[in-house]
């Protein structure tokens, strides 16, 4: 029996939560409800990609919305600059 | 002072009508006068859930159009004497409700009742926006499920822009009522839990109605669950939610998986 499959099946709620948070951030901004978190996400990623090329699948975005405080976690994998330069020379 | 509350959700089938009947009956049992108004023109069901389907003669549209007086269309509940129903029309469509007509009827209801509960149709079209138009407060009925939470978020946006209060720059009191909550599935990570839903929607919790066969049994009989089996978990949840709606500060208990093993206290305060 494949136990990893069993465990993956039963923990679908965290996936639902992540999908909703990201979806609603976009829908709220598209529908004109001010959403600082979505704006920040967009501008932070734009700023990073001006200096290094960011691969879309190397970006992890996580949001937590609370009544008083919301947090935005962005994890961007940036290629090691020294390695990149050495490869070019 | 009269309070107009819209019971809404965006998504259909999440329990708006059951919740309107449950909250309305619970409020009326405290001695306050309550009218539940069915805004679901063409698909009325509040009469059926309340067991008053054979007593409907005139309806909301007849009153809005001025064909009959308000008291001719109001149906008094046979079990709770302070509870009244204003049924929707089953044969007309929502365009028969004029903005001015609805405003006039709501204003008249405000002079006669402590609570006016508006049972909204599903969707975000005119029927739903008419039901929320004059509301002072909103109960957003949400199932712990992705499509319901998304639609609730959409409805919250409309409540903040399309209601009279919002247009005057005031805030409408919004409360989340989670229905069909399955504690076992939530604890096993198979269903969004209460914290997830509240964090995503960032609104206070009015109550948690557990998934229960009592709800279907009650609607089969045409008796709101708070009357049919007042000691059952969903009935107690509606009774407590009604007290919170009246402003009482009561901690919300998250239903636990095992029966009898009572619930841990939920830290969040209800509004």
Explain what you see.
- The complex is a heterodimer of chains A (89) and B (271).
- Chain A has 89 residues and is an alpha+beta fold.
- Chain A has four helices and two strands; from the N terminus they run αααββα.
- Chain A has a two-stranded antiparallel sheet.
- In chain A, a hairpin with a 4-residue loop joins strand 1 (59-65) and strand 2.
- Chain A starts with a helix and ends with a helix.
- The mean pLDDT of chain A is 72.
- Chain B is an alpha/beta fold.
- Chain B has 13 helices and eight strands.
- In chain B, strands 3-4-2-5-1-6-7-8 form an eight-stranded mixed sheet, with helices on both faces.
- The longest helix of chain B has 14 residues, at 16-29.
- Chain B is globular and about 55 Å long.
- The two termini of chain B are 19 Å apart.
- The chains are: A alpha+beta (89), B alpha/beta (271).
- The interface between A and B is medium-sized, with 20 and 20 residues.
Question: What is the structure about, briefly put?
Answer:
The complex is a heterodimer of chains A (89) and B (271). With 89 residues, chain A is of the alpha+beta class. Chain A is built from 4 helices and 2 strands, in the order αααββα.
| Global structural class of chain A | alpha+beta
User: What's the Cα radius of gyration of chain A?
Assistant: 18 Å
Shape of chain A: globular
Q: How many distinct helices of chain A? A: 4
Beta fraction of chain A: 15-25%
Q: What separation lies between the terminal Cα atoms of chain A? A: 51 Å
Topology of chain A as a string of helices (H) and strands (E): HHHEEH
Query: What is the total tally of β strands of chain A?
Result: 2
**Class by SSE composition of chain B:** alpha/beta
Q: State the helicity of chain B in percent bands.
A: 25-40%
Distance between the termini of chain B: 19 Å
What can be said about the biggest beta sheet of chain B?
8 strands, mixed
> Using CB atoms under 8 Å apart, which protein chain pair has the greatest interface?
A-B, 20 and 20 residues
Q: What is the quaternary state of this protein?
A: heterodimer
Order of helices and strands of chain B: EHEHHHEEHEHEHHEHHEHHH
Low-confidence stretches of chain A: none
Mean pLDDT of chain B: 92
